[in-house]
Specification:
Layout (H helix, E strand, L loop, with lengths): L3 H10 L20 H15 L10 H8 L19 E8 L4 H9 L3 E6 L4 E7 L3 H5 L4 E6 L3 E3 L16 H20 L3 H4 L5 H5 L2 H8 L7 E6 L5 H6 L6 E3 L9 H12 L4 E6 L4 H13 L5 E4 L1 E3 L9 H11 L3 E5 L13 E5 L2 E5 L6 E3 L11 E2 L9 E6 L9 E7 L5 E5 L10 E5 L9 E8 L4 E6 L30 E7 L39 E3 L19 E3 L4 E5 L14 H18 L5 H11 L19 H8 L7 E3 L3 E4 L11 E10 L5 E9 L6 E3 L2 E7 L4 E9 L10 E8 L7 E7 L4 E9 L5 E3 L3 E11 L7 E6 L15 E3 L5 E6 L5 E6 L8 E6 L17 E5 L15 E9 L6 E3 L2 E8 L24
Parallel strand pairs: 6-8, 6-9, 7-8, 9-11, 11-22, 22-25, 42-43
Antiparallel strand pairs: 1-3, 1-4, 2-3, 5-10, 12-21, 13-14, 14-20, 15-20, 16-19, 16-21, 17-18, 17-20, 23-24, 26-28, 27-28, 28-32, 29-31, 29-33, 30-32, 33-34, 35-46, 36-45, 37-44, 38-42, 38-46, 39-45, 40-41, 40-44
Helix pairs in contact: 1-2, 9-16, 11-14, 12-13, 14-16, 15-16
């Protein structure tokens, strides 16, 4: 409903009932129609009448809140309001405090992502509460949620909405694929033994390079960021992927990440892998880039995501995260994008200096930009009818982020002159130089864009219709395109922006009717100078005016002659390849190209540990095979890379990687446990996990535990071939004063001839006889609701007393009666979609273990289920068919890691729901902790076990 204030403004303008779209003649190339003038004036009236609080609101949120959009009959793309009356927003605050989160929750917000570093909260809030939230002193701005997209090129054109799976359909499909893969693996079928391999492996000569140089990715960790890894377990069961280190709670939603990881693994099969989602929010994406480097220790990082707010002119928060990890030595690869290029006639990007058309707009200040420049006067940029459906359109200008005092607005009109969409935020000195709108979901005919300078100085502009196309209109408008659509973090100085060229078959559809045929790749041959790039691949270069901190690069000149020009993209790699992931075979787009390039970099590092990033860059660029326009171009960079050429340039040798493995302890007194005062033989295996032979291998074994002696201190293991294990015996003596349950720590330093030498591994040897009796500690409180799709999650505490040191910890989710009724109060944890959940257990010491991580699909409820390190089967293998989940399972991370310190104190079990649409509660959970047998009880029968007739479930 139109609010009184908005109604008064419009009434004063005579705009309560604006003309219908068909009532006005088509707009001329250099004038707004009467309809456009009146409708823009109506929208500007809202802008001009804002209060200080309303100035913090995204313009579309404000117009939606006031109901003005309903009065403009052609307006189709304002704020995205759910049927429940909620909107997803990014709340930018001075600080994310408990008070802010509590206030948002009180206002009915569902928290979706939180970034303390950037003071950013993504939340789903009632539309009628956005003003209340903006009024808080600690809130700087409430924006419509910054959206993102991957650089996958879809086989179905955007104008034809894809038939999407429901959450349940996807769960059923993935569960079926997992079950089929497990069955095939158990039968040792031919299909299970022959994983698919990307055609890019052959096209890049990576297969030849591995054979010629003997490197496979050993010693390197390559990590990806994308939408999600829904089918990770299925890919692993098929033999397509090994273990992947996924940041807990950052599994995401979708499968592009799974497909990217398969590509990396195909080319660098022995590289360690990691993943985190980029899709929770822009700030979360930036946080996860840092986590992959500084917590997960990834050497090579690759992503295929662009957030629409990312500035072309200054490194924003995501780009700053990339800068941080590359400064620390990581190699970073990012998709150049699929936004087209001028050379192929597929672009929808214009950038240049603002040119005043002299055409004013409405009854307020403002003049339109003249796209024709010196060639004439045209205030519209026409969008191709064939590429007009659901297109995000961004406008940036050359002011520093967070300090724009020049106010530009963006409007989308139809051929009749009616406003279809708009973005007109306030820029008065503290905001970002950014506007965004979206074309209608089903597109339109004769759509056109107008840029209006509402107030301020002339600036350099960047206008992009992402995945659209600017082309001449039927009514005489000329399209203006310029190179440089590649923006954001892929354009940072030290990142590699990667273009795409097909490895095998051509992309299967024309980008627009009448377009030239798409190129095909060389498979089963390799890339050469005859290779053609994908016609949708984004071009550069990228002009940047500010350093990341806002310092001008060319003070006083933020025009077309100022700033720094970065040559992007740098290199080209393969797309159009097969993976085992449903929907990604073939996998087209620069989303597929970037992981191919990242995998080749992993091979380089594998054969050259410690090679400086600058030398890797030099090798990739200097050996790239020139394609398309002779010499370096802004479409394919230096050309397409070939793994064998890169490794020949850097040189490479197979590296040994000798690592100490878990020792076996045999007490000299014949006992089954290492006790205080014991002398024991320690049998220490060393395995060569590398590509090369480990020669002159030796081990120095020491202990930082007071009073422990090790003899001899060192031993030679000689030569260990790849994949082989050498074994030696040491003797340790434990002092009689060693406290029962306090482990003896051994540090094994393995030296050998190789760049990875030495490797050091620590082992904690338990001291004392583990008690066969488990003490039970149960949560005794009321059920705790698990908030839907919220990183805040829910938690319960379990006090533990009288144990001291633990020899074993197991954890159970209990219950009285098990069922799949998601509303059941008799199960230990009821939830309508267990596959949404991440469960963690935190010890009093602060040590944390992930118990389960997005497992079980659409299965409902956990009941009488025990998580034990010695369980035969991992919980990660469960499907919805196992629901309700019962029995004994191996947790995601070993619970034994929680016993390094005394276990008395408060334990916390937390659950986060990482996807939307389902709810549940924590009801009944318990810890089962085994201590150590005290000396007086050392002669107790070995078959003593704990028995609980009534109480929580626990392992026997």
């Amino acid at each position: 409903m139109l609010t009184a204030g908005a109604a008064a403004l419009l009434a004063a303008l005579g705009l309560v009932s604006p003309p219908v779209a068909g009532a006005a003649p088509a707009s001329g190339p250099d004038a707004f129609s009467e309809t456009a003038q009146q409708q823009i004036a109506a929208l500007q009236a809202v802008k001009a009448g804002r209060t200080a609080t309303e100035s913090k609101l995204d313009s579309k949120l404000l117009v939606a809140e006031k109901g003005v959009g309903k009065q403009l009959n052609a307006l189709q793309s304002g704020a995205t309001v759910s049927p429940a009356g909620t909107v997803v927003v990014d709340i930018r605050a001075s600080k994310v405090s408990p008070d802010l989160l509590a206030g948002l929750t009180k206002a009915g917000a569902g928290i979706r992502a939180v970034s303390d570093r950037y003071g950013s909260v993504r939340a789903e809030v009632p539309l009628d509460k956005v003003g209340e939230i903006a009024a808080r002193a600690d809130v700087k701005r409430v924006e419509q949620a910054d959206q993102a997209m991957t650089a996958r090129e879809l086989a179905t054109p955007a104008a034809t909405p894809e038939k999407t799976e429901t959450k349940q359909q996807k769960a059923d499909r993935i569960a079926g694929e997992l079950q089929k893969a497990v069955s095939a693996k158990s039968q040792r079928s031919a299909a299970a033994a022959a994983p698919l391999v990307s055609e890019g492996d052959r096209a890049h000569n990576a297969d030849i390079a591995r054979q010629q140089f003997g490197v496979t990715g050993v010693g390197v960790k390559a990590c990806a960021l994308s939408d999600g890894v829904d089918s990770l377990a299925a890919s692993q069961a098929k033999g397509e992927l090994p273990a992947v280190d996924v940041i807990a709670g950052q599994e995401g939603d979708g499968d592009e990440g799974t497909a990217m990881l398969e590509i990396i693994h195909d080319l660098a099969p022995r590289a360690a892998l990691g993943f985190a989602s980029a899709f929770n929010s822009d700030a979360s994406f930036a946080d996860n880039i840092r986590k992959l480097r500084f917590e997960s220790h990834c050497d090579v990082i690759v992503d295929d995501v662009i957030y629409f707010k990312e500035s072309p002119f200054q490194d924003w928060i995501i780009a700053q995260a990339v800068n941080d990890v590359t400064a620390d030595g990581a190699l970073y690869f990012s998709s150049a994008g699929n936004e087209g290029n001028v050379a192929s006639g597929t672009a929808a990007h214009w950038e240049g200096d603002f040119v005043d058309s002299g055409k004013s707009v409405g009854k307020f200040a403002g003049t339109a930009h003249n796209f024709a420049g010196t060639a004439g006067n045209q205030i519209y940029e026409p969008i191709s009818n064939a590429s007009s459906a659901g297109v995000p359109v961004t406008l940036h200008w050359s002011d520093p982020l967070g300090a724009s005092a020049n106010d530009y607005d963006l409007y989308l009109l139809n051929s009749a002159g009616a406003v279809v969409s708009f973005s007109q935020n306030v820029q008065d000195g503290t905001q970002d130089p950014y506007e965004i709108l979206q074309t209608p979901a089903f597109g339109g005919t004769g759509l056109r864009l107008a840029v209006v300078k509402f107030s301020g100085a002339n600036r350099y502009l960047s206008l992009s219709a992402l995945r659209g196309r600017f082309s001449d209109s039927a009514d005489g408008l000329k399209a203006y395109n310029t190179p440089g659509v590649t923006v954001g973090h892929s354009a940072t100085r030290d990142a590699f922006s990667v273009a795409a060229a097909p490895a095998a078959k051509a992309f299967g559809r024309a980008l627009e009717p009448g377009d030239p045929a798409n190129p095909a790749g060389p498979y089963p041959g390799s890339f050469s100078g005859a290779t053609k790039a994908e016609r949708f691949s984004s071009d550069g270069p990228r002009r940047v005016f500010y350093e990341a901190n806002g310092t001008p690069i060319t003070p006083g000149n933020v025009s077309s002659t100022g700033g720094e020009v970065r040559n992007k993209p740098e290199i080209t790699a393969a797309d159009g390849v097969q993976t085992s992931v449903t929907g990604f075979s073939p996998f087209f787009g620069t989303s597929a190209a970037a992981p191919h390039a990242a995998a080749i970099a992993a091979l380089v590092l594998s054969g050259n540990p410690g090679l400086p990033p600058a030398e890797v860059r030099e090798a990739l660029i200097n050996t790239a095979v020139d394609i398309e326009t002779p010499g370096r171009d802004n479409f394919t960079g230096s050309g397409v890379i070939l793994a064998d050429k890169v490794l020949a340039y850097t040189g490479a040798s197979p590296q040994p990687l000798a690592v100490a493995k878990q020792p076996t302890v045999t007490p000299a007194d014949g006992g089954s446990a290492l006790d205080p005062g014991d002398t024991a033989k320690v049998t220490l295996p060393v395995t060569n996990d590398g590509d090369g032979t480990a020669v002159s291998t030796s081990v120095v074994l020491t202990s930082p535990t007071p009073g422990v002696t090790v003899a001899p201190r060192s031993k030679s293991y000689g030569t260990i071939s790849p994949g082989q294990t050498g074994v030696n015996d040491f003797t340790i003596t434990v002092p009689a004063s060693q406290q029962l349950g306090v482990p003896v720590v051994l540090n094994a330093r393995v030296t050998f001839a190789g760049a990875h030498s030495p490797t050091t591994t620590s082992f904690a040897l338990p001291v004392g006889t583990p008690s066969p009796v488990a003490q039970d500690f149960a949560y005794a409180g009321e059920p705790v609701a698990i908030p839907d799709n919220s990183p805040v999650g829910a938690s319960v505490t379990i006090p533990v007393t009288g144990v001291g040191r633990a020899s074993k910890v197991t954890f159970s989710v209990d219950g009285a009666t098990c069922s799949t009724d998601p509303t059941s109060t008799a199960v230990g944890l009821n939830h309508s979609y267990v596959g949404d959940l991440v469960g963690t257990l935190t010890a009093p010491s602060g040590a944390k273990a992930t118990v389960f991580q997005r497992n079980g699909g659409s299965g409902k409820n956990l009941c009488k289920v025990v998580f034990a390190d010695n369980a035969a089967t991992a919980f990660s293998t469960v499907t919805s068919a196992n629901a309700p989940f019962t029995g004994t399972w191996r947790p995601t991370q070993a619970l034994g890691g929680l016993t390094g310190a005394a276990v008395d104190g408060t334990w916390t079990f937390g659950v986060v729901d990482a996807a939307g649409g389902d709810v549940g509660s924590i009801r009944s959970v318990a810890l089962h902790i085994n201590g150590f047998v005290q000396p007086a009880a050392a002669g107790a029968p070995s078959n003593v076990r704990a028995v609980t007739n009534n109480g929580p479930v626990h392992p026997l």
